[in-house]
Automatic annotation (TrEMBL):
Transmembrane segments: none annotated. It catalyses: adenosine(34) in tRNA + H2O + H(+) = inosine(34) in tRNA + NH4(+). It comes from Shewanella electrica. Binds 1 zinc ion per subunit. PANTHER family: CYTOSINE DEAMINASE FAMILY MEMBER, TRNA-SPECIFIC ADENOSINE DEAMINASE. This is tRNA-specific adenosine deaminase. Zn(2+) binds at H63, C93, C96. Homodimer. Gene3D superfamilies: Cytidine Deaminase, domain 2. Keywords: Hydrolase, Metal-binding, tRNA processing, Zinc. Coiled coil: none annotated. It is an enzyme of class 3 (hydrolase). CDD domains: nucleoside_deaminase.
Amino acid sequence: MTDTAIPNTQLADDEQWMRHALQLAERAEAAGEVPVGAVLVKDNQVIAEGWNLPITDNDPTAHAEIRCLQQAGKALQNYRLLDTTLYVTLEPCAMCAGAMVHSRIGRVVFGAFDAKTGAAGSVIDLLQQPQFNHQVQVTAGVLADECASQLSNFFKRRRQEQKSLKQQRQAEAAVIQPDAGKS
């Protein structure tokens, strides 16, 4: 069930850990990846961290959440990640939500909503499926503006870079073939 009223102390903790996830997202962005970061916490201690690396690793499963869950399983020496909270800057996709259910995390806290592929309520809610043998508690929208801004700034910058590259190629092509089309 999605949290509706969060105690002030819980909200402060959630914001602290989401800021940590935002810093991890910066690592993804520095690598040319979509800036998504994730941190798994148990008893107010970091168990694992992850950030997007699917392009770098040539791996469609190298999402921040998956990398974090993999690292956590090794750290805890268990594929069950009971009594943990995963903080992620973007609403999980179906793949990541499925991994969260299978790993039995207790709670996921995310920042920005994903209207195209969000599987924690935006498009579909896989974390709260009553048919599954485990449901993950969800807290949505923590530092949503900062998380969404980080993503939108990244994509805006990427579009500008692609536009500049296209213009540069067109200019180079015009220099190489100045008389093209003349008979």
